[in-house]
Structures are given as C-alpha cells and as structure tokens.
Amino acid sequence: MVITGLVMGIIFGSLLHFGKIRFNLAFRNLFFFSDPHIFKMLILIVTLEAIYFHAFAYFGLLNLNPIPLNWVSNPLGGILTGIGVAIAGGCAGITSRSGEGITTAMVTLASYVITIFLVSNSFIIDFFSKFEIRVDNINELFVESSGPSLYSILGISPWGILFIAVIISFTYIFLSGESKRKGEHSWKIIANITALSGVIAYILSHYNGRDYGYAITAGWKNIINWIFGIEPIGWVGYEVLGIVLGAFLISRSNNKFRFVVPKNKKIYIKFIFAGFLIGFGSTIAKGCTTGHFLTGLPQFSISSIITLSFLLAANYLTNRYILRGHIKKIKN
What we know:
globular, mainly alpha
C-alpha cells in the first residue's frame, strides 16, 4: 500500500531530527572544521545501503535502478543544488526542519516546491531530456533499462565493485580520527538504523510500482502535481509528508519544536533564492542530496557520482565564501 510511504517517511524524518543527518553540515564540518563526525555517519549509511540493496536485489525483493545519466543537467544541477544547499541546507534538511518549526526552512521549502512544479511541467525538462543516456541491463539485479552504473561502464561484476567500495569505506571509517563531541559512538547506531530503513523503504516502494528508495525532490513533485490534479499521490509523496510529520512529532516529544523567526525579515529573500536553486538544480538532475547520495550512490550510479561531484565542489566554494570571516579567525 502507498500509505507505507507515510510510515517510512515518519521514521526517516525522526532519524533526520534525532541523528542530525545534515548533508551540508557534514561537508562543512569536514572541510572547514576537521570534524568528520556526520560525514562518517553518511559514509557508513551509504556503505551499508550498498550491501543491503545488492543483497535484496539478488533475492528479487527489489531492482537496482540507477538514475539516467545526463552530461548536461547532472553537472549543472549539481552546481546549482550545491550553492543552494550551502545557503539553506539540503532538501531533506529543509523538509525535516520545516516540521520542527524553523520558518527559514519553511520559506526555502515553499520556494523549492514551487520551482519543482514550474520546471518539471515546462519545456526545460523536454530540453534537457535530449541529452539523457540510458543503458539496457542484462544483469538480473537491475531493471531492464536505467542509467549507467560503474558496472556497465567498467564491465566488472557488481559484486566486485561492491567488495572494493566496502573495503575502502570501512578503512576510512575505522582509521579516521574520532571527534571530541559527546556521544561520539552513537552515530554508528543511527547509521545502522537509517541504512536498514533505507532498504525497507526501497522494498516497499518497489512493491508499490516504484523502483527507488528515499527521495525528496520526486516526493514534493508528486505532492504539488497531486494538488493541481496532474497525478495521484503515490508512495514517494506520502514519504515526504511523513518526513515533515516525523520531525514534528520527535521535536514536540523532546520539547525542541519552536517557531523560529529571524529578526531581520529581509533574510527570507536569501532563502527564497536558495529554494529556487535547489528546486531547479535537483529537478534537472533528477534528485538532490537524498536521492543521489542515499539512494543513487549505493547503486554506484554514474549520474549520482557526477551530480554529487559538482554539488560538493559548488558547496565547498560557496561555504568557503560564506565562512570566510570565521576561517580567518581560526587561522589567526
């Protein structure tokens, strides 16, 4: 049933709030403050998901479905999304923080969703679709036609790629330094629960006619199209509603829900602009930080690797500009 999307969304939203799973925060802390805490958690989530996705695909409970490759919109979408994420946070972050009462996140989310609707129902998508690349898969783990993966590009067994990736990831995770913050080891528990919820979400989505796991842009696209009578609400639409609800319930239960309104209302202009960048970028790239990082990367999707590479570069440069004063103080 599509309503299972709501359940998984509530679980994911709760994890986003409780585990502080924030993509921009992870990259910013790693690059500028030498704190790998959240980044290691994300790497562990992706690594475990890669194992789970391939294992359950082998037993026929899901089909791997890499996002179609687009040499034009993947880099461009990654750059725009990376800038927007540095300003306002990732798509999952603004979705969950809206449920926590953060008004800047709500404004960003509104701009993000409106942009998704305008772009996805315009000539822009038709234009970029001309550059889309799909491959026919002969491996039983995959859907018949999808975007290329490392397997299809390198001609190596999926299990070989998975083995190498797991070794590299676990080596980094367990050999990198620990941060000095409290609850240093709790991130491993959060990562395991999130990865497990990710594969359950993929399986439930598969049995509701959609071969993909957690995604935010696709979910809000489904919601806004449903509101305007373009398509019925589906599993992924319920998922994003569940994320908002889950973050709300958890923040209320631990007395952290609050409406936060900035003193300077002009700051909302910045977040409206950020929402536009994230909405435009993630729509043409067919996914944002969640869709590409948490679901695309564990499948070794080429489109996700390219999008995330440009997203990280843009995110780094934008954060470097935003934090330039703070970085100078640290160096001095």
